[in-house]
## 1
Amino acid sequence: MEAWEQGLSWQKAEEGLNQFGANEIRASQVGWWELLARQFKSPLVYLLVGAAAVDAILGELIESGVILGIVFVNAGLGFFQEFRSEQALKLLKKYTASKARVIRDGGETIIAAVGVVPGDTLVAIPGDILAADVKWLKTEGLEADESILSGESQMVEKSVGSQGLSGTSVVRGKGFGLVTATGKNTVWGKTAKETVETVQTSSFEKDIGKFSKFILRIIGVTLALVFAVNMLAKSGTVSWTELALFSIALAVSVIPEALPVVITFSLSRGALRLAKNKVVVKRLAAVEDLGNIEILCTDKTGTLTENKLALAGVWGEKEKVLWLAGISCLGTGHDPIDTAIWESLPKQTQKKLQVEVAMLDEIPFDPVSRTMQITAKWKGKKWEISRGVEEKISIDSPEATKWSQEMGLAGKRIIAVGVNGRGAGLMAFSDPVKSSTISAIRNAEKLGLAIKILTGDSPAVAGSVAREIGLVSDSLLVIRGDELDKMGVKEQHTAVEKYAVFARVTPTQKNKIIDLLQEKYRVGYLGEGINDGPALKSADVGLVVDHASDVGRDAADIILLKKDLKIIVDGIEEGRIVTANTRKYLLATMASNFGNFYAVSIASLVINFLPMLPIQILLLNLLSDLPMVSIATDNVDRHDVARPMPFDLKNLLATATVLGIVSTVFDFMFFGLFFKSTPATLQTAWFMGSVLTELVFLYSIRTKKFFLTSRAPSWPIWILTGLAAVLAVGIPLTKFGAEAFKFTKLPTESLFLVFGVVAAYLATTESVKLWYYNWRKN
């Protein structure tokens, strides 16, 4: 045995790891101090710190201290949520760690890719992404895709002595390579340091960016007008510094500054909940993308069925067919069919095959021809054994055709075996449907999610399984890949919508089906092989199982630790919950904040003092934002996840405008009721009423139904709204409130008047909400 065939010893590998370090290209790590500093890198924070500095210069030390206190409290809340999100991301990365196949102490084993060291013998088969740079020591028809480095899509043939580069993928054959460089010392490491983590921007993130710019433009124009008019009207009664602080405070009150925190917290919380259910996201935005899927394209085997194949029957000379099939199991790749064949053989036959048969060559399974081939030597003769679908290994016998049709209609998977270019026999395999599949199909229907099967199996088998799980009413409602290819473009569009089962499809045909569906729908695709890469990248969301090829894992957005339709459907529901709660936050902040923003702005133009002091507006913003951050934890009504709800800015603005008008009307009601009171009384009453109306509005806007008949809010919402309400009523009653925020103690009748208006506001906004959603529905 040559030295490389023995590989490194585990002890030598450990020494190499200490000497060369882990085989990884480290992304820049974000420390807690950077997260904390990030909370202060905002134009809003700069404005507030500037305002506090101006107050301090003018001698208003208490007001300056309160403003800075509010800045630090907001920063603390943001830091806490972002820190939790970062911890969630670190946990998720552990789930998606890459693997490598190496030889250690003479045996082939799979280890974490970070543990590969120079001197290791790396074993590469189709679907692998090389974990390190290697010098090829032995190759068997080895071809690699190096387009990630060269940009050229042509496959590169590899021979002994040539170089294999980290990050490139194996397309065909098999290779044994001596590891020459790892981590940052590889060719990939030297070119990828700056781009080790590429950031993908989802459609949701782009829409949020547009929304933020739109809000800032409206606020900027409004504040400029308010400041200018107030300067002209109040030049003798209010100083320009106080007006500037008032304008800054108004801007802070209406800008949804907690939006990034809410989105990050919602997505990371959703990602962790998915991970507990064996669904791991590679990027946080994929959680929201998953929720927006309208069609899920999936394979049959292992997703809908158990993928526990058992030999159910043999046509032909049984002993000969099983012997030939046994030889086909001696190759390097092992799939469930290999396992089922091998387990059906007597122990004595297994030993005989291993001792008497010598492997000469192997052509791994080709997803286009759907066959594989083994060349072996037995009893001094050369045998070419082929195994695959019956259409490719012809058996000219009416009895074989009849047997195959009967088995296919019974849901059995048919595999043909040939020797030296001639068909030798057929084997039938049973693969029972998972117990969870039927309930998952029903749940998918409730979510408005269409399931389509894309499989290489025969139409009879695919149709039988689809009928058993309730996906189709007739097992003949199946279309073959070659039938689809013969259609015109218009017919193809009709076919991909009409049919739920596509049989005998190649990877290219799968990609075509997904492309056609994407012209009208958002599509998810579940694949696992090297040839699924294009389809995984084409789909809006690509999903693979944990044991998928490296190429498949690299192309996917989501990795499943268990291949089961139920966990995918549950994941889609979780994604919709995240989207629904983010929409709630946007609606709540836009409607209530804008209503208050315009009411205070207009009121400032008709009285000779400020309707609410800058420091009071900042406190109002802090107290109303406190429970808003917890909205990511809220429970969601069934109708909110019944169908995809992609971000719709126009719809959001229309709803917020209607409900914002109600908020503005009631703000003016507070203004009218306390108009003749002292400035301090008006400011205190309006502050208290504004906080309480925003809090009750949250309970209304969190559901499209009557709020008392919806699902109960999550406990963080109960606690934080209760705390905010107590502070809103309690602070104005204290000496601290009078000194720090210029509040005054309201008489009992004024307090009851405020509570009465808040109750009337809840009743009115709830009525308008129900009317509006009913009107939209009709």
## 2
Amino acid sequence: MKRTRLVLAGVLGCVLAVGLTPTAWASTTYPAEQSNNTSTCVAGSSTSPADCAAAFAGQTDTRTGIETPLFDPPGGNVSAENVRDLLYPGSATKVFVNMMLGFCTPADGTSSPGIPRCNSNVLTQYTSDNTATVDAHLADFVRRGIDGAVMDWYGPGSRVNDATLKYQAEIRDRGYCPGGPQQCQVMYLIMYDGSTLKYPVSWTGIPNTTGSGCSTSLGGTDTENCIVARLRNDICYMNGLHFGNDAYQKYNGRPMLQFFINEGGMYPNLPKTGPAPSWEDVWFWIRQWTDNMHVNCSGAPAGSPNYAADNGMPLLLFENAGGFTHAQSDGAFDWVNPTQNQDDLRISPASTGGTVDNFYATSLNYLSSKVVWGVAYKGFNDVQSAWGANRLIDQRCGQTWVLSLASARNNGYSSSRQLPFVQIATWNDYNEGTPIETGIDNCYQVAASVSGSTLTWQANAANGNANPATISHWLVFDSTDGGSSYQQIASLAAGSTSYDLSGLPAGTHTLFVKMVGRADILNQVSGTVTYASSGPSPSSWIDEQVQFLANHQLPDGALLGPGNSINPYFANLAAVGLARADTATGNTVLYKWMQWYLNHLNSTDSKGLSDTIYDYNYDPTTGAESSTGHYDSVDSYASTALNVAYTGYLTGDSRIQALVANNIGTYEAIANLDDYRAPSGVRDTDNLTMAVPGGAKYTMDNSEVAGGLADFAQLEAALGRTDQHNYYLAWHDATVSAITEKLWNATKNTWDWALGSASDLTGTFYPNATAQLWPTLFGVVRPDSTDATSAWKAFTDRWTDWFDDKIVDSYPWTAMARAGQLNGKPDQASHLLSTLHDTYAPDWGGNWYDDEAGWFILGAKGMDP
């Protein structure tokens, strides 16, 4: 194997492969691609809480003039694209959702005509402290890449606190926190809801605290004293039961605590600012308390939790841009601030207080000293809320969502100035029409049709606000069993409207197109259409590659590779393709190359080996060819020369057959490089071949050796040389046994890329991923063997879009097409060939080298190397 690819591709792979956690495209069904995948209550859905009381029906505003009437759709098939992609390129922002915890499912007397409610709340049909609900939410968070939840919290002893503790426990028990403190896959923190101050909660028993509710009719001094004592109680409780938990989100080692309190409104006798009694003075005393909690939170009755634990002084965060200058503020979180004007999205301009732009513009002044929490929202509509005030922000079919997230980018945040946190308002506040849990409807419907060999589709807008900015990309699915099961065969850019079907295998295909939305947008699918294919890649594609190689052949037969080099390994792979193409032009190119190869063998090289071959350089100015005095790997150069000899002989071309027969002794000397031990060959005592130079025992090289010896044994048989056939077949068998015994990693169910070097599929594509393909490509194992299927699964689990020419490597690795065919993915293999053709034709420049042409022919012909 030509390992110079490791140098060329490795740097790029190391940079771009970091952090990718894709999921494999397995076989799917048409219903599955449009079914609910959220934690919303949907009848028969496997992702909904198991104990839903009923299906959530969605919410519609039927008033005249409402631009987006369906403001909360029923749960559907929601995009799992990364929310951070909507913030700015390179965003490392932590994304949290605000959670409204509810506990009531049957409708009661608080309902209105057509609006079933329970305890004045719109019915979600689930209960937040049920384990099934918690688990469904956590799974949905992880699927969508959400980092955690901000719990709207009502104090110790409340059902909201019980639910929060349930989330805490399930994060631990479901394995979401394997990395220890601050390393959980799902984190949480508390938003202290000020309305809880009016109601009693559990008392910690700590001196100078209270669990009593604070009446709104108290005088100013009594109000302040009550609120201070109550906040002390609740914060000490949080310190004992929440702040020290592995999953509680901290910032620079300090737990964050958001306050959602209507200061100056909820308690009429307590002004927001000024001397005591005031909210400003409340926060002065709370700061004194939290700065010394290990003392102030002590003194609870025996048997109480450790309320005085040292979990870091909490950071006090307050609402909106004014939160940065709020008394005792450690930072601010933005929130949705609706009016009664549906067209005022409250995103811009930055000069207007209460807008998202204003918050971000203000936050830049505090980014280095305080915590910043941005906001994102889809809209707002409280028409079905029991306390609704006709406040409204129209969703504009997902545009509001996209614009609210883009505000960070538009106001100074970037990969070099990161926004620390963003809070989605909300996950499930159905009372105010803000939940993203069900998905956001972008008001498109998808229609598809087939004309000739072209699949076309269009996104039809059901609302004038529908906008392509809400579309991420398109997926094409294909079924060859009449629609029972489907495979994804293409992933195309958002602006795409067609797909060429001419590369599909012969037979009847049932297809559909799926519109994948931007993050949290509802996906949509087309109806199914059929296409009758006459077969895969047209023969003209093969002719193109033959001509490409003919154009890169020098008069003496040398085949040019990268940068005017003559690389015998690359050229041998190209020559195998030429042999399989078996055209008049191709056979002439092949014959001339075989002559060149035989004419340039070393009598004795620098390592003391005979019948090896060096790489050469070509000077186009003088026409001179000069040896580099170097080869990359003796075993691969030799074994692929044996492939060429056998496949060339099979063409039946009299020139090639005579060349092979007349030089069979020389080819045996080449073969013996791979079966003799040192000093005459490169085989070791364990029956693996060593790369010379270097000494490593590579899986790819040894697979090529096995394939070369198998072909050469068949060639000897074709020439009537039975003893020689048996000899080389025995060495082939020994090589296969050594590979399967010594290079298969039973622990990881993958091929090691070299003896003693396990493959890391999260690492560079070559050699970690390519090592999974080579044993199948070169016949070491059958495609249906356990080793082959396990290696293929590992490969596709890591490189889900291998067929889209999207691997992180500077080379196209066209060999994947043939590997896909062997592993039962002919549609995806054909798609890869079609994609590569679209990318490189007609010039076939860039990194399209002679070996890629050979692999392309093998894929197009459906033949082994």
## 3
Amino acid sequence: MRTNDFLLVYVLLIAPISIALYLYGFFPTVNYGDKIATRKDIPQHVENVRIQTDMLYKPLVKKLIIMVIDALRWDFVANPVGKFAMPLTNSLLANSSGCLLRAKLQSPTVTMPRIKAMMTGTVPNFVDIILNFGSKPLSSDSLLLQAKKQGHKLVFYGDETWLSLFPNIFNRYDGTTSFFVTDFTEVDSNVTRHIQDELNNDDWSVMILHYLGLDHIGHIEGPFGASIKPKLQEMDEIIGQIARKVQYWNDNDTSALFVVCGDHGMKDSGGHGGSTLHETVVPFITIGQMHCPVQKNESEWIEIEQLDIAATLSVALGLPIPSTNLGSIFLENIYNLADSKRLFLLYYNTKQLFNHFRKLVINESQNIHRKYRNTVRLHIGWLNANEKPSGMVEYIASSYNAILKDIKSTLIANMVKKGSKMRMFQIGTLLHIVSFSGSSFIEEEHQTWYFFWGSTVACLLYRCSGKWFAYHRYDSSHQFHVLCIKLLLLLIGHRILRKLNSTGDKYAHLPDIASWLKEDNSRVGMTLLLLTALIFLIWIAYDCENKEYKWQSLILNTVIAVCIYLRHVANDAVGKIPSYFSSSGIYEVQTFWGITALFLVSCAYRVRLMIKYNRKRFTSTMLFFMINTWVMISAMLHQPYNVILLPMQIVASSTIDTVLKENNLLDLSVFVHYWLGNVFYFYQGNSNSLASIDVAAGYVGLRSYMPFITGAYLIVNTYSAPVLAYFLLIYYRQLNETHSKTYITWRLFTMTVYTIIITIQRHHLFIWSVFSPKLLYESMYSVIMCCSTLLVLVVIKLQLAMTPNYTSISTTSQF
């Protein structure tokens, strides 16, 4: 093949991959979270007032039937067409045996995301339009998962999409394929044939039916086709059959609720997936012992959101509301609830949504927070009052509903913004990589990282200060003011540390703090700085150590710190100790390695005990030892004025991790630590010039040139900060291999792009003076990170091998 043919094949192969990557990054993703609600999440108090939860949160129904009619438009039930085609259903609504509500839903209006919305109470991803053709199991919390966990027996018949989303949930089921749109009859007959048998069975509490025939007719004939009316009549007869049984159960003290709804609507052309009115408004019918308000005209229909269904049905069954829920309960619109129960349910629902809401930083947060607190105070006042006026109940309920509406709309709007913060860090990293095409950007790379880091800390400070101002008047329990102070100190530290060592090319000659400290008349300053750094490191190690080993750690780290100080005394870099013998520093370094070996033996003994008695702590213990050892060796090799960078990096990492956790931004941990490692790399005085390598670090404690040891010392000293940043990231996010994969992927991606750039620039004037040294730095950086990642993965795999059912835990002692 010719070169042009190879190029064409390459383009044809790479184009679909590029498009897929772009689509993946463009469409917002929804983070459902891993938390599964439990009965402990049901409030036992309204603030400090004890309530009888067992009495207020009893199930309203013992049996629940959900009948989903695919593509059931609002006018198929409410308009004259529906009244003529579905007489039984309309008679149930007319005699108050059932309630009709207008359910609104968001785009995309296709089956799979609509099922997710109904069962989880959250907004599905827009890209689910494509995933609708290949559903995968839903791992997040849901109404069905809660029912299963609480001992309910579930049965299902209909669209097999449910079985794909919720495997191992149903005790009995029979799925039908939804994509043979020419099938109008058999796809529904396979559901109907099970109904009578299940109505006669008494061993289930939740039954779900999903009919597809109406949707298939719509795709072929449209909503006005000849087959629509017969299909609606068929559905009407089934509704009547089930309604009679539900009425019988209710008359015989078996409370039951029958729900009929559409998953989405249908365009006048017959399709769906968009956001037109006929696609996004569907009927929601409840049949049972209802208490329905009378609608006099079209404008008085009660409107709900489709994502309200999960919370409402959970409460009806007495289940915990799914943790993913963003919807509000509308039971008061269909049941006559006691005042105390009504207010409690609204409080529970509002509190659950408010816990999601308080993680956001928006301009309206202070106003909503104030409304929430005021309403809760009114609720407490009503609970404590001897006389409870009904007018006060209505006011409190309307206040709760108003807050729910505001919070829900804010949370829904925020879902589509998901991922924008992640993309900011991705774009920043990409811009840094692209900057390698310019020689000046390589020479002054530290300026890029200084700008990125300062901007990141400033943005986090802005976010935390916004939350502080929003909550400080109403919630004294938050710690955002502490985080603001820490972030402000980080910014001040950034401004100081960037002047610790002048680096780069154009401004490397300018005076810096290190140059001043190395002057003879600044010996006291150098001494105090080194002592401060060593004491800081000792304190961090002591504070993070397990209680039973704190004193052992204190003694070992103190001796090691003394060795480090004395080795700099021998080099005449810091203040001398009176009566201390003259030394070349070799004995001090040898003592350091002896103590380090003793520390490693102690670590091995503790790991052995850990494997024997407490295997779940293996990973955290190993990572702690790795970090401790790496910091000790780096402190020995660093110049005395650079030792302070080690505790500063640990504190910065801990602070940033806490800030990300409090702001629900843990997805950014990888990028923030990746940037953190690079920033401290340049704080140390490194650059992309080979002249900036601290060659003296390679000969610490050596009498003669030893290539392997010298090379190892130089590598540890030079790449101390990036490796430490990676270890700290994994320490905070144990057993999460995704972080390791993402970290090393970006490192190797940077290396790959740079090899392409340097190939293109191979005839550049500065190829040997600028681009080639950078290639050596990047190559070694990548190799070091690969080795570090491999070491961490071995530790994680050992943990998983020892405890197969182990899940990630939070470290109890964090740096």
## 4
Amino acid sequence: MTGPSASHLAQRDERTRVILLVGQSISLGIFASLLLITANSLFLSTFGSAALPYAYLAVAALGSVTFYALATIQRSWPPPRLALLIDLSLVAAALAGWLALVAGLIWASFLLVVAIPLVIQAGFVVLGGQVGRLFDVRQIKRLFPRVVFGFATGFMLGGLLSGPLLGWLGRTENLLLPTAAAGVLMTGFLLATTRRYSNDLAPIARPRRQQKAKSLPKLLTRRYALLIFSYQMLAALTSQLLNFILLDRSGARFATSEALARFFGTYNLVLNLTDMLFLALLAGWILSRFGLGLGFLINPASGSALLVVMLAAGALLGPASLAFFVLIALTQLLNIVLTDGAMRTSLNAAYQALPADERTAVQTGVEGIGLPLAIGFAGLLLLIFRALNVADILTVTVVTMAFALLWTGGGWLVYRGYAHELLQTLRRRALGSEPLTLDDRSSLDVALSLLDSPEPAKVRLGLDALENAHYPELGSRIAPLVSHSNPHVQIDALERVAQLRIGEARAAVIATAQAGADDSVRAAALRAWCALDGTGAISAVLPALSTPNATVRAGAVQGLLIYCGGAGRAAARPALENMVASLIPVERATAATALAGVPEAQSSGPLSKLLQDPDPKVRQAALHAAGGLRSPAIIDLLTDGLADRRTRSAATTALAASGIATLPRIELSLADANEWADGTSERLVRVAAQIDSPAVTELLSKHLEHQHPPVRTQVLEALRSRGYHAAGQEAAAVNTALHNEAQHGQALLQIRTSLGSAIEVAALQSTIADELGAIRHRMMLLLSLLYDRQGMQRAEDLIGSGQGATRSLALEGLEVMLSGEHRALLFPLIIQDGELAEIEPLSLVDPLQALIQSPAVAFPPAWTQACALYAAGRLRLAALRPYLEAAAANPDSDVRATANWATRLATDIAN
């Protein structure tokens, strides 16, 4: 009943968070757009483009100081206060700029131009800080694009509003008033966010680092990180020079600040519309169709091409021509659109290829340091040109084209670096936990290149990737590997030939089977030969049955049994029987290996003998071969393998491979008290957890309240690991189990308090504490079947950490997540205040009696009962003598022995 309501509330809360953040981002976009239009218009009409280099240098200097100061303040201020400081500073800067310009202080326009990139960066510091606190990682990936889209929307709105506002306000500098108003609106949304989500945005104590983090300079000097840094620097430098050319030509073409303001308003509107359309319609398709290589190269390559056309237009028609102006406007528009739609996505993927603990630091270094440095370098470069008297706009265009070409080369290097990092990603089968695909040429080329590696692991990795991707030319790629110089590669290739029936490899298979240098390779080749030719291979393979080499003989036996029908089985049977009956354990183990994959009708008889072999290595080989067999007799023998630690792992794997055929045996075990005691039931439940069938869940869900606590715990862990979520009558059963566990826990808590802290009961108190921990664990497992599984598991882990702040955070999470009924059941077992008091021995009779009288296999466990008997003996409580004598008949040996000892002590006191 509480599930749907809680889900609805969570969705509504998520929408509220997004709305508040989008409100801030739209306001930031309007603020930045109006500031850009105002500052550029006034700056160009007052100082002209000649002063832009100084502005760029100021951005580098002021940006470094500003963000260093913000980083310093951030260590001591709570995030909401820092965010409010930034927002109010933006409002104050806009109003101060307006007052200065109205007062005739024309230099204020210089400061406004410097502020533009810093405003955008600072605004995203505020937004990013809130997003990281208000959403988890999955939500960020899903919802943060909406926040960024809000900024683009606000920027476009600013461009739309600039024209009407300018007509109404009359003077360009008066646009700073609505700019400040947008800042006030942004501050209002911020205050609403911080007030509503003050707990989420409050500072969280950080745990101590286990090892010293790498310094930022060290991270950025790593080759791949340095490539990304250089690529981003070249991108920012080229973009800044393009912006300079656009501003220079705009200043020359429009004489007044009002005309400039109208132009930039229209230009920004067109730019943002184009950007949004490209993001919505083309960006994803382009990257999916052509891969990240194009994402890295399309922006610099297209920019370089347009710059060549610009130079031609400038040389033929002059830089003052309309054609040159249109080309620079188009080039910068395309640069910004491709930056948002292709380059940012590609770079984001590039960052994800870095180790997880380095991504954030490298990205912060590149964007927080690289971009201001690039802007400053552009300014310094322009000043050098001026000092050398080569600062005409065509010279700047030539230099910009040179940097664009370097940027293109940098894109190619980053792409190759990405391919190298992709090798590490292929080993993990995931990039940022996403499934591996070979949808683009770059990934396919990497996978194909692995086949040429001398390292077997890399070749296997490439083959797995190609096979999983259903590569159409896989056969022609595998065939040459049959003759590879490394036997491990040969065996892997031959197994794939047999499995996939790759006819192109037949000649190489036959040659290897007849003259292979390695015994294991020859055995694999014989199996592959049988797989390719079927009964046609029998006569050629028969001589291998007489070879003295057991490995080669086993390969021939296995191939004939699996692939060559009745005639092949008849031919292989005598050799197999001789190997099974051999006095040499290695021969018998090889026979077991040969039976892997053989149909059950032919393999169950020999395997039954080998599974009972006195040698554990033979049994282990037989267990590996028996996985997937389903006869009850074989299942019983596989279960026997669980008792020996030397064969337990192989037995577990084999039983899991047998699937639902093991369920009847598991059900019998869950009803057998002897198998509860020796651990067989727990091991079989762990096997059940690995079987992919609804029947497993149906079976385990019947044992939520299994009589034996360790088995009960294992059942609940298996259900949680399978993602079982109870509903309807199943939820009612879980709720009943919860109440029973809570009742047991409450009884133990009362006994624990009643026992006090006497030294005689110390062992019992420790045992009770362990049992309470087991009960809490089972209750958390049961709750995970009703609520969010991962959330409950994370809460349990945090509570178990024992750290005050972390534990409090987990309790807060449970407070929100659980219903009132379930909080009342769980919290008393989690929150235990106060120290144990000294209790008079005579007052311990009742709590000890309660523990001693309980059945051994129900509540409490036998060990707790034994500890209670031990405490009674230490305290020599004669009043408990009848209960001690009754416990002496308990079936559990520990309880029985302790009861006899305690009875003697109580009798001595009575006498």
